[in-house]
Amino acid sequence: MTKNIVVMCDGTWNSPNSETNVNTLYKELIEEDYKQHVMYLDGIGIGELAFNFIIDGAIAVSLDRKIKEGYKYIINHYNPDDDIWLFGFSRGAYTVRCIAGLIRNCGILKLDRDITPDQIDKLVDVAYDIYRNRDKVYHPEGPGSDDFKKSF
Predict the structure, then answer these.
(1) What local confidence, expressed as pLDDT, does residue 52 receive?
(2) CB count, 10 Å around CB of 100?
(3) What is the percent of the chain with per-residue pLDDT over 70, rounded to a whole number?
(4) Which of 13, 90, 108, 115 is the most exposed place for a label (fewest CB within 10 A)?
(5) Euclidean distance between CA atoms 152 and 150, whole angstroms
(6) Alpha-carbon distance 135 to 146, whole Å?
(7) Looking at the Swiss-Prot or TrEMBL record, what is one Pfam family this protein matches (predicted)?
(8) How many Å apart are CA 27 and CA 19, to the nearest integer?
(9) Is the pLDDT of residue 119 over 90?
């Protein structure tokens, strides 16, 4: 049965308590009966320490982690007939654009065999490194990306 997989990324310094369109839509979607998996990622700069607020908000130290989290959520819930929806605000829009690019370059890893969470994390790291590599070999239709897609 087809389902929706929805990843929603908020903007800088926006948390689940923020009144943003992303958060409002997230709250509506989690109340729906429709078959879907919905993930909300708070914005860059949200953390327990003042350091996170200032430094991460300014230079987005946590951006890589958030991109990987969104991608991992998708691969953990995805089946071939599913629809993927990505929503973002501000830097969250950039985050979901990167998730879409990661999917385009590396595909969606198929987790239909025994694989540990640590192994998933390592594969996501490899996929992310391929996505970030500007060498032509790793462009979306390049042999490096194609080989990775075929392997998983």
Answers:
(1) 73
(2) 15
(3) 99
(4) 115
(5) 6
(6) 14
(7) T6SS_Tle1-like_cat
(8) 11
(9) yes
Q: Give exposure, 122-134, as e/b (b: 16+ Cβ within 10 Å).
A: ebbeebbebbeee
Tokens of 104: 């385009």
pTM for the predicted model, two decimal places = 0.92
- With cut-offs at 50, 70 and 90, classify the pLDDT of residue 48: low
Say how many C-beta atoms besides its own lie within 10 A of residue 105's C-beta.
23
